[in-house]
Amino acid sequence: MNLKELDSFKMSDAVHFHKELNPAIFDGDSMKSDVRIQLLNIAEDFVDHLGIKNLNIKDITISGSSAAYSYTQYSDIDLHILVDFNEFNDDDVYRELFNAKKTVYNDQHEIMIGGYEVELYVQDSNQPVISLGEYSVMDDKWIRLPRKRRAHLDQAATKLKYEKLMNLAEFALKSSSPAKIEGVLKTIKRYRQAGLDESGEFSSENLAFKALRNNGTIDKLYDKLNELHSRKLSLPECSGYIPSEKEKNDPRWKMALSVDVNPYSLQDNAKRLGSKIQRNGRPPLLRP
């Protein structure tokens, strides 16, 4: 555990405020026309991916830091497709379906606008979004115009949650266990979502998540997970080398041995043939 890193934690590691809205998305207070058209195209493609005929779309919005003054280079453009879950007979089934479709779509596509990744969500129109800003891409207008002010930020609670998650991440990275790394990633996501649902963008859980993302910890977890997955699917190169008696139990040479091949195979087979060939395959010297 890097104690100096925890001691140097600052709220600016998690959130930074700008004097203007994200210039990659907005021109002043208005969304850029080409950005809006592209976001609508992305939303249409995502709705097609959902595979539900005649889905009644109430609105298409963006929210979060990209629709406020707190965006960073790591911010996503959270594109929400609003539908009324009360229109479905079994809304729990549809929630599960939408979550699964969302995960598959976001994993399969890396859609960027102005250097910012677009993340797709299906949102229940009956549940209000807790965010400083919310913009209707469909109607091209603000639902909630963000203000240029700092929200109340709980430094102590954020640092506490950051330290807890950082400890879990450090432990998982040292363990080289895919299950533990996946468990930590799920815990981080669960923390973040709980904070967003309860207190919005500036919840201590979401700010702790942003600090972990900004310092590269989350990328390290995903990189390690991918490395372990690739290693599991790989076989070591086989050079035909026959280990010595001392090496034969070394796991690095496990794939070089088989049932009928051992350090003395050449020598033993030569004896059966009446040859004095050496273990390394060198034939006996010719004598006059």
Short descriptors:
288 residues; six-stranded mixed beta sheet; 8 helices
Strand and helix layout:
Elements: H1 3-7, E1 26-27, E2 30-31, H2 33-50, E3 59-63, E4 77-83, H3 91-108, E5 112-113, E6 116-124, E7 134-136, E8 141-144, H4 155-175, H5 178-199, H6 204-214, H7 217-232, H8 265-272
Parallel strand pairs: 4-6
Antiparallel strand pairs: 1-2, 3-4, 3-7, 5-6, 7-8
Helix pairs in contact: 4-5, 4-6, 4-7, 5-6, 5-7
Description:
It is a single chain. 25% of the residues are buried. This protein is elongated. The strands form two sheets. A six-stranded mixed β-sheet has the order 5-6-4-3-7-8. The protein has 288 residues and is an alpha+beta fold. It has helices spanning 3-7, 33-50, 91-108, 155-175, 178-199, 204-214, 217-232, 265-272; strands at 26-27, 30-31, 59-63, 77-83, 112-113, 116-124, 134-136, 141-144. The chain starts with a helix and ends in a 16-residue tail after the last helix.
Shape: elongated
Q: Enumerate how many helices there are, as a single number.
A: 8
Summarize the main sheet.
Answer: 6 strands, mixed
Mean pLDDT: 79
Task: Give the strand order, joined by hyphens, for the main sheet.
Answer: 5-6-4-3-7-8
Q: List low-pLDDT spans.
A: 1-8
Structure summary, number of beta strands: 8
Q: How much helicity do the residues have?
A: 40-55%
> Using only CA atoms, what is the Rg?
29 Å
- H/E topology pattern: HEEHEEHEEEEHHHHH
Strand content range: 5-15%
- Estimated structural class: alpha+beta
Q: Note the gap between the termini.
A: 73 Å
